[in-house]
Write a structure and sequence with these properties.
It contains nine helices and 42 strands. Strands 35, 36, 37, 38, 39, 40, 41 and 42 form an eight-stranded mixed beta sheet that branches. Strands 2, 4, 5, 7, 8 and 9 form a six-stranded mixed beta sheet that branches. Strands 11-17-16-13-14 form a five-stranded mixed beta sheet, with no helix packed on it. The chain starts with a helix and ends with a strand.
């Protein structure tokens, strides 16, 4: 019973000292750092006059009793709790608990607020007028945030800041225009707007935009500036955007010929190489242009002159085709060799590009197995061995047979002298037959014999007169030594010197001149060259267009032939200065001459066809002398081996080492500057 009474007394005591708490102004749902949190409470008091009032804030990472004091309710029943300054320690979700305690700090009543949030994040919105832009365009920004904030605006690409500015908000929103650079790179970019107030509250927002590429330039590359006919031309174009990045776009190519005529039109994606063989092989300068919209890049390339023939042996025929791109004119000789005997077949080649001709060997050679070699002044070709089935005309068989009987080691298949010897041989046979018949039928055939002798004598005399007439007729065009010795001499190998000259830029100099002026210049040039060559015991072998070929120690023996050839070259070079003065006085541009000299063993003699027989030289030194004049820059050039033979007698400087066509090794070349007196 006592126990129950005690419990009742306690319960009555609790009831007597209790009170109710009312929060008059509850917290706002959200707070920022730097703001103040203020509360005011009311207490329904009872008999208890004095209590302790406590206010505690509990946040995510912190709890603080920031107010605790005795309250006398006899004086007041409402209490305004001092404001709490909010800093970074209270970030997160928070509640405030109000406790009433008795003087012994026993809780009489407790009241808690609803949960509210304390943060350091300011509100900010960012928008743009569109999502995609081109270089040079303007971006219109709209930003909404707190008035008075300083906003940092940036245009960013992969952590690289392309643009930045600071703006102070005069209101809760403002507009900003950003001008894009003309060279801004393509791709995704980010616009970032950020701000921080004095209390450490921050705002940041961003928006992604896309920059589209614009084709700004095109670059054409070709694999080489010079090609030979039938070689592939390779080229490609790259298109670059505003920031020099490559783009993959369609490119149109146009190729123009030397006459500005359109040859090809091709479309291909940029960056892809095109390799093609042009149908046109005409030598000259060509233009290739690459286009994309209003972009264009032209390049020039040159198809070089190719002077080349192809020789094939098919069915006992030598088929000749001009596979170059210029007209091929040359006198050549086919040497068919067997057991120390050589048959020479002269051929005259005059073919336009693509043209063909053939030589039927069965009509030129007896039945045998031959090793064939084709010779020209500048080159030689070896053809595989060939077995010939004889199909020669009877007269050719007899003339060549007679030449073989006479012991000739070289037989020209269509030489006029073979026919002459045959005719002479037939006359002798005729005399023998007549003499035999005379002895048997002396009386009856005297008249016939007399007539035969007269006729044959008349023929022989006619041949002698004709030969004399030829010498007189061509005395102006052919060196007298050739007329005296050349027609009689057999082909032989001999050490000689060869001089070649060539007018530099001949076609360009005379393109605009009349033929009369051209003839006048050439005759002056040839006349001076001829005088100098003859003075030095040489002879002009031939004039080839604007070139001169001279031989020394060929018909007339001369131990000093190398030195005289070099002296001729220097005198020609010197004479050109005087000639140029005359040309200038006639309104003609001065000319420059390249000169090459070489010496060595060559085959000299009569070469050619039945229509044209020519005394000349064939061999490697001829080819080298010709190549020397082609690389000459107006100087006199000789080879090292020629230099070594006369170096004590001349003044020379090392010129360089060069590769030459149809010569296996590089040739060391010297420039002659004078003669040691």
């Amino acid at each position: 019973m006592k126990k129950e009474i005690s419990i009742i007394i306690i319960l009555l005591s609790i009831s007597l000292i209790s009170a109710s708490i009312t929060i008059n102004n509850p917290p706002e749902p959200n707070y920022l750092m730097g703001e103040r949190l203020e509360l005011e409470i009311s207490v329904d008091r009872n008999d208890q006059d004095q209590v302790i009032l406590s206010s505690t804030i509990s946040c995510t990472n912190n709890q603080l009793t920031y107010f605790k004091t005795p309250i006398d309710f006899r004086i007041q029943d409402q209490v305004k709790i001092p404001s709490l300054f909010i800093d970074e320690n209270f970030l997160g979700n928070c509640k405030i608990k109000i406790d009433l305690l008795d003087l012994n700090e026993k809780i009489l009543e407790t009241k808690s607020t609803d949960e509210f949030e304390i943060s350091n994040t300011l509100s900010m919105n960012l928008s743009t007028d569109k999502e995609e832009y081109y270089p040079g365009e303007s971006i219109i920004l709209e930003i909404e945030s707190t008035k008075g904030l300083t906003v940092d605006i940036s245009l960013v690409e992969e952590n690289n800041r392309l643009f930045s500015s600071k703006e102070i908000l005069s209101s809760n929103s403002f507009s900003k225009i950003i001008k894009l650079d003309e060279t801004i790179s393509k791709g995704e970019k980010q616009i970032i707007a950020s701000s921080e107030d004095k209390n450490g509250n921050k705002a940041e927002t961003s928006r992604k935009i896309k920059i589209n590429p614009i084709a700004k330039s095109i670059s054409l590359t070709i694999n080489t500036k010079e090609i030979l006919p039938y070689e592939n031309l390779s080229f490609l174009s790259e298109i670059y955007d505003q920031s020099e990045d490559k783009m993959s776009l369609e490119v149109n190519y146009k190729i123009y010929g030397p006459e500005d005529n359109l040859l090809e039109s091709i479309e291909e994606t940029s960056g892809k190489e095109i390799s093609m063989n042009l149908e046109s092989t005409t030598p000259g300068d060509y233009i290739i242009k690459s286009y994309h919209n209003n972009l264009e890049d032209p390049r020039k390339f040159t198809i070089l002159e190719l002077r080349k023939i192809d020789l094939k042996n098919e069915d006992n025929k030598i088929n000749i085709e001009n596979i170059g791109n210029v007209r091929y004119i040359e006198d050549m000789t086919i040497d068919a060799s067997i057991e120390g005997l050589t048959y020479q077949i002269p051929i005259n080649i005059n073919l336009n590009p693509g043209e063909k001709s053939s030589i039927d060997l069965t009509k030129e050679l007896p039945s045998e197995n031959y090793a064939l070699t084709v010779h020209s002044i500048n080159s030689s070709y070896t053809i595989e061995s060939i077995a010939i089935n004889d199909n020669r005309p009877l007269i050719k068989k007899m003339s060549q047979g007679l030449a073989k009987i006479t012991g000739a080691s070289i037989i020209t298949t269509n030489r006029v002298s073979n026919v002459f010897y045959l005719g002479f041989f037939l006359v002798i046979i005729g005399f023998i037959i007549v003499f035999t018949i005379q002895r048997r039928f002396k009386t009856k055939v005297y008249g016939v014999i007399d007539d035969t002798v007269k006729v044959q004598s008349k023929k022989i005399g006619g041949l002698i007169k004709e030969k004399s007439k030829i010498k007189n007729m061509f005395g102006k065009y052919v060196d007298p030594n050739i007329l005296k010795k050349g027609f009689k001499s057999k082909n032989q190998k001999k050490e000689i010197s060869i001089l070649f000259t060539d007018i530099r830029g001949y076609s360009k100099i005379f393109d605009s001149k009349e033929s009369e002026n051209i003839t006048q210049v050439l005759n002056m040039y040839f006349s001076k060259s001829s005088e100098i060559v003859k003075k030095n015991n040489g002879f002009i072998n031939k004039f080839i267009g604007d070139s001169v070929m001279a031989l020394y120690n060929s018909l007339v023996n001369d131990k000093e032939h190398i030195l005289k050839a070099v002296r001729s070259a220097l005198e020609i070079k010197k004479e050109m200065k005087s000639l140029n003065k005359k040309l200038v006085s006639k309104g003609i541009e001065p000319i420059e001459v390249g000169i090459g000299v070489d010496s060595g063993e060559c085959t000299i003699g009569n070469f050619g066809s039945k229509d044209k027989l020519e005394y000349t030289a064939i061999g490697s030194p001829v080819n080298i002398a010709f190549r020397l004049q082609s690389i000459s820059d107006g100087n006199v050039l000789i080879t090292e081996q020629t230099y070594n033979k006369i170096k004590s007698k001349i003044k020379a400087e090392y010129f360089g080492e060069f590769e030459m066509k149809n010569i296996s090794n590089k040739i060391k070349v010297y420039k002659v500057t004078g003669i040691n007196i």
